[in-house]
Amino acid sequence: MGNEKPRYIASPYSYYGDSSRPRTYSVWDTKGGEWTGDFVGNKEGAQEVADNLNYKYYECTECGYVQVEEATLTEFKCDHCSRRVIISYEAVLAETPAATPALPNIKTATDELHRCFRAFNDHYFNGEVAEPAITIQAAGKRQAYGWCSLVPFWHRPGAEGDGSEPDGHRYEINLSAEHMARDHYDILRTLLHEMVHLHNVHIGVQDVSRGGTYHNLRFKAACERDNMFYYDFDKPDKKIGWSAAKLTDETRAFIDTIGVSSEAFGLYRAVPEKAKKTSNSFKLECPDCGAKVRASKPGLLIRCKPCDVDMEEI
Questions:
Q1: Does some domain include residue 271?
Q2: Are residues 110 and 250 both part of a single domain?
Q3: Which of 20, 30, 102, 257 has the maximum number of C-beta atoms within 10 A of its C-beta?
Q4: How does DSSP assign 192-242, residue by residue?
């Protein structure tokens, strides 16, 4: 064990005549068989050399360049990036704080929705549903988690044809931006719900009526095919019919095999509540008969003639 070669060997190199700067060390990785001259990507080697020589290990906060110096510095000239003077920190004496995880964004969510669409399409629809444009939009006045188009709204410039994917046209599935903070099972339940609609469009089955709100028995039958969904009620809702289908345990288990990213969803659109309008009118009421009137100014004296009493502001 005493003859075992060290993992990293330090070798000083000069600054081409600039004797005012302290020596900086290159490192030979004895296992990797290569020089790591500026230590980029080899912080382990830089730190080990710094510890062995009792020198300081510095890292450029701009580009990540790392080096070992004899002296204690508050700044150094970085030879690796365009900036001349970089304030540095000593990684031997203070740990670098962990990076803040990136927040989810719309692209992260839509990319994951497209990936899940393909998995659902292959598993439940034999790949028959042409991949649509999947968007996340404000629901507006819609009281829905999602909706899909009955015609291919998305076209490629110059594309002609009957609306099928090879002709460059795409249908559209939208998920409500206000409801994207739900559990990922619920978000994918909405996606699969809209895929049922889209598959029925492709095979010529009308599964809704009343402006697309009432889900009929054809929709229910499609949802229960392959044990995708189930219903915990026996009679359809008067307004939306058989819309509220729930994922079966088998479908949830299949979703688990997809490996949905937990970071993909969570960013949602928060709509601030509208402030109530302040009224410029004032109500007065007769204390005897209860008759009410409105006035545009406060403090008016209005008399109830039948009761012969002054009305009171309420």
A1: no
A2: yes
A3: 30
A4: HHHHHHHHHHHTT---EETTTTEE-HHHHHHHHGGG-EE-S-SS-BTTTBT
Give the pLDDT of residue 45.
59
DSSP code at position 178? G
Q: Where are the alpha helices (DSSP H) in the chain?
A: 43-53, 106-124, 184-202, 217-224, 249-258
Q: Give the model confidence (pLDDT) of 56-97 as tens digits.
A: 666 666 666 666 665 555 555 655 555 544 444 333 333 334
Q: 303 in a domain, yes or no?
A: yes
Residue 32: what residue type? G
Q: Is the entire prediction scored with pTM above 0.90?
A: no
Q: Which two tokens stand for residue 126?
A: 């034999």
Residue that finishes a domain, picked among 58, 90, 122: 90
Whether 240 and 208 share a structural domain: yes
Q: What percentage of the chain carries pLDDT values higher than 70? A: 61
pLDDT, mean of residues 248-262: 92
Nearest-angstrom CA–CA distance, 283 and 94? 68
pLDDT in tens, 110-124: 999 999 999 999 999
**C-alpha R_g of the chain:** 35
- Side-chain-side CA neighbours of residue 212 (13 Å): 12
User: What are the Cα distances from residue 307, in Å, to 10, 57, 284?
Assistant: 105, 93, 14
The residues facing 234 across adjacent strands are none
